[in-house]
Design brief:
Length: 155
């Protein structure tokens, strides 16, 4: 009889430990669920963002984001160039793309310029990698901004 009581007490103690562990995991899940949902929403949305816009969404300083991307082989500059270019691996991964724009210089000549754009998938990845970056869970409630979609590849 004493053996059965001791066994019942051990099982009751193990059950309490498991219930406590489950409660802790449920609280952790409740805390992270809005962030995960926001990342999912962002990574599956349409649109693209400039580097400064991406920094604002990630709630980091633009210089910090650009420095991270430059040192982590996301973007680079050619010698004596002022525009950033995306590494091909990040373009292939669907994180970045180049928008080609035209402008008229002070001499009246029409020129083109590359602009690096961060795609939603890249924004979600940067949110995980950039120190101090965070995505506002309220982004889940926002409508998608009217940014240009990435053009479809020409076959």
């Amino acid at each position: 009889m004493t053996e059965a009581l001791r066994l019942a007490a051990e099982l009751s103690e193990k059950n309490d430990i498991l219930l406590n562990t489950v409660a802790i995991r449920q609280r952790e899940l409740a805390e992270t669920a809005p962030k995960a949902a926001a990342l999912d929403r962002i990574s599956t949305s349409d649109g693209s963002y400039g580097l400064t816009e991406a920094a604002k969404i990630l709630q980091v300083k633009p210089k910090a984001l650009i420095a991270f991307m430059a040192t982590s082989q996301w973007i680079y500059r050619r010698n004596n160039a002022k525009n950033w270019l995306a590494y091909q691996a990040k373009i292939d991964a669907g994180y970045l793309w180049h928008k080609i724009g035209t402008y008229t210089d002070p001499n009246g000549e029409e020129k083109t310029r590359d602009t690096v754009k961060v795609l939603p998938k890249g924004l979600a990845k940067l949110a995980q990698l950039v120190p101090g970056a965070k995505i506002d869970p309220d982004l889940m409630q926002m409508e998608a901004p009217p940014f240009a979609k990435k053009p479809e590849p020409v076959s």
